[in-house]
Amino acid sequence: MRRLAIALLFTPLVGLAGLSLLAPVAHATTVPPDSTTADSAVDITAISEENDVASDLAPVDVLQVSGLFDDVQVQSVKDAIAQAEANGSQALILQMNAEGAIVSDDEMRDLLQTVADAKVAIGIWVGPSRASRAYGVPAQLFGVADVTAMVAGSRIGYTGELLALEGAEVDLGPNADQLVDGSMSFAEARDAGVLKLDTTDEGVPTVRSMVLAMDGVMLDDGTVLDTVTQELSDDGTTQNVATLVRFTGLGLLEELFHTVASPPMAFLFIVIGVCLLIFEFFTAGVGVAGLVGAVLTVLGCYGLEALPTRTGALVLLALSMLAFAIDVQVGIPRFWTGVGTVLFVLSALFLYEPIPGNDLRLGWFTLFVTIAGVMLTFIVGMPSMVRTRFATPTIGREWMIGSPGVAVGAISPEGVAQIGEAKWRARTNRATPIAAGAELRVVAIDGATLEVEPAEGGARDYRERRPKHTDDASSEPEAAATDTP
Q1: Among 78, 96, 70, which residue's Cα sits nearest to residue 258?
Q2: What whole-number distance in Å separates Cα of residue 270 and Cα of residue 267?
Q3: Is residue 402 left, alpha or beta, with left meaning phi > 0 and alpha meaning psi from -120 to 50?
Q4: What is the pLDDT of residues 267-284, one digit of tens each?
């Protein structure tokens, strides 16, 4: 029974966590377009089909930046710039699919300043899919980067007021005011002068195309980027060969904390963690569930601290778990389970404050599955666990036998009885139903269910009457012998 309770607790919640982890994540592609050219002019669609690399050119680094800009993401960009400078790279491309920033404006200003002062060329490419976005303050990186481009179909906007820098300026073109509270498509951004690269309607479809587009860019110090060279092929034609492209990303630990700082995962971790702690508390011991619950709770608290949350919603979330725990204690989901459900739904709906370009609300699918999982946990899983716990002989409730109580509702033959301040599942003899409010007495305990009878007029079990008949039968011969003269 304990295993069943654990299964009922884990299955819905962990299943939702798995679905969230399996959500699509932006990844870079290094597959070049399938066109070649014999012309000497540089065209962003003209890269060798072969996997040739121009070894005589300095490499270009690519950092994949996706999701919300948190402390981990901001630091990763700074580290990538420092590493590119130390390793002799001629440029760093940020492959961006940003949904906004959850760090302070001061931290974003420091990042913009670092990009503006970088000794290597910084390119920003919004991709790789048409659904990629550059929203919020991270979009201001377009104003300090050396080369900026987008995939056709992607969007940029909701920059907010442009941040002031020292010795540099965030320049998003003459129509930057349209991006403060709105967004532009690739074509609109190109026509408005937001992009620092004039391309065709196809945009820049791949990272390799972006590398080619950076060829010939002159930096403020007069350095000209050389990312593509032309080589003579075996058939006598020339082809463009790009320099070595090195991809980098977050480490395993950094990726964990970056994932936890996303709205759905932070919510899931804190809910699953607290549920497991409640489960372990009522099992009167410390096991795997308790340890896992503690770890998830800590990670969930980290995520909620990093995200913009509403204090009132956090209070509702804590009260909902307390309300659930009250009914778990008695093993019967009743009034407090309903209260906990209402509070939990309200906290989930209003947990996060919006940021520019992103309301941070949990998706309806996430809400539905989470609420259903929590209800299944506290209506089915937890009560089964509590009944299993109290069915063990180590707890000891023999002191309740003989205790008086009151029927909360009609017990015929099952119902709820109140013994002292606690309510318990109760069962009585079918021959002696107990009306609501009537006094009763505990006569036995069967697992988490109390065997009760009316305080007066309780039915006697046939096993109690059998010895009496035997004694009467054995006394009849004695009486007959006494009457014999």
Answers
A1: 70
A2: 5
A3: left
A4: 999 999 998 888 887 765
